[in-house]
Amino acid sequence: MKTNFYNFRALFLALVAAVAFSSCSKDDGPGQLPEIRSGFYILNEGNLNANNASLSFYNFENESVVADFFAQKNGRGLGDTGNDIQIYGSKMYIVVNASNTVEVVNAKTVKSIKQISFVDQQKQIGRQPRYIVFNKNKAFVSAYDGTVSVIDTASLVIEKTITVGRSPEAMAIANNKLYVANSGGLDYPNYDKTVSVIDLSSLSEIKKIEVAVNPGNVTAGVNGKIYVKSTGNYGDVKPTLSIIDSKTDAVTSSKEFSGSSMTVVGNKAYFLKSGGVMEYDLLTDAVVKENIITDGTAIKIPYGFSYDNVTGEFFVCDAVSYSGSGIVYCFGKDGKKKYEVKAGALPGAVVFLNK
Question: What start and end residues bound the annotated signal peptide (predicted)?
């Protein structure tokens, strides 16, 4: 009986090891293990043409913040204008707009794996990458030259470049389609007003959907809906929130709506606004709270918003000024400040690191 017990134990451990090994596949996507946070990264955009984009790291264990974390780990700066940051699998991707690069690093050590160039070699001009999203083993990067590039997350090679609308910004995925907000921002005042739809099977644009002027933020929400936040022309055309049904690609709703940026969490959306963050119910299409901050904490220049789905905490990035250091505030579910972290210049995004 004892021999059988140890044989069974050995077999069990072998099966556990096999499962663990199989989880490390070529498709470098998110794992299924429970999420336990070790800290978070802050992408500090920096000032345009100042070459001072940076990465900060806040450690939950010792409640300390490390500034210029990327530079410390790699002996060089991050570059000019950090615009987006995402963790996918074991890698972290940092989109550096004016430097025309996507930095790919080990998510835990921040050691560089590869710097992907976004320079059009034929035209010898920078593509100006903006945002990044993921689907299966592909990364999709929008760029101001009117393209979305497809990167294989295993080889980190750009496999294809898809032409979309003018000055594309944020992207969202629903029903095996990629929705790309074409702002036309570089053609001011002649803005674009379309959302490109890319079929994720053929990796080609299949249509453009007309929305309000200057769409910049697009997010997938409940029931297959796509929410598009358009800024307008900063004059007589006001900001607008449009809703697209991803099953039919029809615009089902469009209304004037204030608030910048947009983050969807379940049935709620959160919009940056003067002094704080607005909460909006997507099911009733109504404002729930004009400001989720309940303790009077003043946000001078709201510059970024993140939600931790593990802890239920809200993180608000405050640029404070457009020249000095910024602050990231952590708020609990009750809207009260739990702590604040000193950041670099123009903190714009927070991403959470698991143990």
Answer: 1-25
pLDDT value of residue 4: 42
pTM: predicted TM-score of the whole model, two decimal places: 0.90
| Domain residue ranges in the chain | 286-354
| Eight-state DSSP code of residue 34 | P
pLDDT attached to residue 260:
86
- For residue 130, how many other CB atoms are within 10 A of its CB? 24
- What's the pLDDT at 261? 86
Task: Indicate the SS3 state at residue 5.
Answer: helix
Report angle CA 341, 344, 347 to the nearest 5 degrees. 80
Residue 342 host element (H or E)? strand 337-345
Q: Are 189 and 231 in contact (CB under 8 A)?
A: no
Q: Which of 280, 187, 278 is nearest to 227 (CA)?
A: 280
Residues of the chain falling short of pLDDT 50: 1-27
Give the tokens for residue 106.
């080990």
Give the dihedral of Cα atoms 301, 86, 224, 315; nearest 10 deg: -40
Contacts of residue 330, Cβ cutoff 8 Å, sequence gap at least 6:
313, 314, 315, 337, 338, 339, 340, 341
**pLDDT score for 311:** 93
Structure tokens at 79: 């570059």
Query: In this structure, are residues 343 and 328 in contact, taking their beta carbons and an 8 Å threshold?
Result: yes
User: Identity (one letter) of the amino acid at 329?
Assistant: Y
Quickly list DSSP for 99-117: TTEEEEEETTT--EEEEEE
The torsion angles phi and psi of 187, rounded to 5 degrees, stand at -105, 25
Tens digits of per-residue pLDDT, 269-308? 999 999 899 999 998 889 999 999 999 999 999 999 999 9
**Predicted pLDDT of residue 323:** 84
Q: What is the DSSP letter of 33?
A: S
For β-strands 138-143 and 215-220, DSSP reports them as unpaired
Residue 82 and residue 348 in contact, taking contact as beta carbons nearer than 8 Å: yes
DSSP state of 53: B
* Residue 34 pLDDT: 62
